[in-house]
Amino acid sequence: MNLKNTFTISEKFLHRCKGKNIALVDDVMTTGATVEMASQALKAAGIKNVTVWAIARTPETSC
């Protein structure tokens, strides 16, 4: 799945959160691609640190 340029950060959000630490909550993390791209977008927009909280994680599979 290609998630490049999927996430944008609202200027209204940045005004309140730029330079701060935030938590990104995901219900179920599978490959981690979504939280990775969202975290990259947030950090590129000036968020100091992104911590990911996931309620559940799918098992890793080996090929």
TrEMBL record:
Pfam families: Pribosyltran. InterPro entries: ComF/GntX_DNA_util-trans (IPR051910), PRTase-like (IPR029057), PRTase_dom (IPR000836). Residues 15-60 form the Phosphoribosyltransferase domain. Belongs to the ComF/GntX family. This is Phosphoribosyltransferase domain-containing protein. It comes from Marinibactrum halimedae. The lineage of its organism: Bacteria, Pseudomonadati, Pseudomonadota, Gammaproteobacteria, Cellvibrionales.
